[in-house]
Amino acid sequence: MERPPALPARLPVALVAVDAARGVHRRWQVAVTRDLFGYWLVERAWGRIGAAGRTRIDSFAEEGAAHAHARRLLARRAGARRRIGVAYLPVDMSTGGVVDM
């Protein structure tokens, strides 16, 4: 089984997939946080750029399980080129611009 990629040092992670010729304008974001009751939350948001989109929050009792879930979600985004025809690229959350890799 392929090992999921390591989480970036800084969370949240924001990604975009854009192909204007095909009408693909997607955004995706994941963050791992802790709530007031001590549970670990993995919050992801996705949708078309400029639209309200959707959000889902998954709760975990242990930090390791939350980070493992976030890694699996990022691994799925890594396969976007195969699924939707365009790769997701990281976005600098302070400027909104795509990060050079």
Q: If you had to describe this structure to a student in words, what would you say it looks like?
A:
There is one protein chain. It contains two helices and five strands. The chain is an alpha+beta fold and 101 residues long. It has one domain: q64v53_bacfr protein fold (Single Sheet). The chain has a five-stranded antiparallel β-sheet, with helices on one face. The mean pLDDT is 84.
CATH overall fold name? q64v53_bacfr protein fold
Tell me the fraction of residues in β-strands, as a range.
35-45%
Q: Could you say which overall geometry the principal axes of the C-alpha atoms support?
A: elongated
**Cα-based radius of gyration, to the nearest Å:** 14 Å
Q: Give the terminus-to-terminus CA distance.
A: 26 Å
CATH architecture identity: Single Sheet
CATH class category name: Mainly Beta
H/E element sequence: EEEEHHE
CATH superfamily: WGR domain
Question: Helical percent range?
Answer: 10-25%
Arithmetic mean pLDDT: 84
Number of helices: 2
* DSSP E strands, number: 5
Whole-number total of structural domains: 1
